[in-house]
């Protein structure tokens, strides 16, 4: 169940917005999924349930020399994880849909999708910077090298579900939606040791439909996560008319390499993302630190 005035606005706006979106393949071109925006009002709250995610891994303290190595200046340190986590997930029932987190902390959250690029330099970069990311992985895209993402997981970054083969969910049957989510959930749990808590549909498609929500419930994730900004090659694409980050915004990026980034590398794209965040005075926090997951 979704609660709050902000959420009530979400579902009406989301259903209208999703019908107007132009489909663009996640792997087609440099912009990827960012070219297809999800509902601009996606919910920022979730069902209430007294639970916790366990012991979250704190983001590594930034080291100036590590940032300098990549031509960057350290971002402001993220505040401690809130004791009262603003997004609370229920153990069962309808799952919430959200694209930002209700917080006054001047933080944003970086999410990276699919897994097409497996650049070892990116693992080195995240180790040097200590910047947390949340990974939404597509099984058939990562299955040739599950170990690459295990290295990123070992840095404290969480693995979440982004379907089996990147299907457009509103274009397939409920049975296919179920298989897309459940098969990926099983594989990712097997390889990464923890069932993915969150799900993101490719392109944000079908996020607010009853069929998709039912499939997510049946397969195990407890929320559907969209986004507010998407990183292109050198700049971000904003949903807000003022083209500015807001506290709690979720930013979408992709595991991409020179083929899709017009010659730029994954590390160069990520460095540009961090510069855009720094220019606006934000820190990067760990999304899972703001989510209270069900227990039992």
In short:
With 296 residues, this protein is of the alpha/beta class. The protein contains 8 helices and 12 strands.
What does this structure look like?
The chain is of the alpha/beta class and about 300 residues long. It has one domain: Glycoside hydrolase/deacetylase (TIM Barrel, Alpha-Beta Barrel). The chain is about 30% helix and about 15% strand. It has eight helices and twelve strands. It has helices at about 5-20, 65-70, 120-130, 140, 145-155, 175-190, 210-220, 265-280, and strands at about 85-90, 95-100, 105-115, 135, 160, 200, 225, 230, 235-240, 250-255, 285, 290. The strands form three sheets. Strands 3, 4, 5, 8, 9, 10 and 11 form a seven-stranded mixed sheet that branches. Strands 2-7-6 form a three-stranded parallel sheet, with no helix packed on it. It has a two-stranded parallel ribbon with strand order 1-12. Strand 6 (about 200), helix 7 (about 210-220) and strand 7 (about 225) form a beta-alpha-beta unit. The longest helix has 19 residues, at about 175-190. The two termini are about 20 Å apart. The model is unreliable at about 1-25, about 25-30 and about 35-60 (pLDDT under 50).
């Amino acid at each position: 169940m979704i609660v709050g005035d902000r959420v009530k606005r979400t579902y009406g706006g989301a259903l209208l917005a999703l019908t107007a979106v132009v489909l663009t393949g996640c792997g087609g071109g440099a912009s990827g999924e960012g070219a297809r925006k999800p509902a601009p009002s996606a919910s920022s709250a979730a069902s209430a349930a007294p639970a916790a995610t366990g012991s979250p891994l704190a983001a590594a303290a930034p080291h100036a020399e590590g940032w300098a190595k990549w031509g960057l200046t350290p971002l402001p340190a993220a505040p401690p994880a809130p004791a009262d986590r603003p997004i609370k997930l229920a153990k069962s029932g309808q799952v919430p849909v959200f694209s930002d987190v209700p917080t006054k902390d001047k933080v944003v959250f970086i999410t990276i999708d699919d897994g097409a690029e497996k650049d070892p330099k990116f693992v080195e970069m995240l180790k040097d910077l200590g910047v947390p990311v949340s990974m939404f992985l597509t099984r058939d895209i990562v299955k040739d090298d599950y170990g690459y993402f295990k290295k990123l997981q070992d840095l404290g970054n969480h693995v979440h579900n982004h379907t089996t083969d990147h299907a457009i969910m509103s274009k397939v049957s409920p049975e296919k939606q179920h298989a897309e989510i459940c098969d990926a959930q099983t594989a990712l749990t097997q390889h990464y040791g923890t069932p993915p808590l969150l799900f993101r549909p490719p392109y944000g498609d079908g996020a607010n439909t009853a069929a998709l929500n039912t499939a997510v419930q049946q397969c195990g994730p407890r929320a559907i996560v969209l986004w507010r900004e998407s990183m292109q090659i050198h700049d971000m694409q904003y949903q807000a008319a003022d083209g500015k980050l807001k506290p709690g915004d979720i930013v979408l990026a992709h595991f991409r390499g020179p083929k899709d980034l017009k010659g730029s590398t994954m590390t160069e794209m990520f460095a540009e993302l961090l510069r855009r965040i720094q220019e606006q005075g934000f820190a990067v926090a760990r999304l899972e630190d703001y989510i209270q997951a069900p227990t039992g």
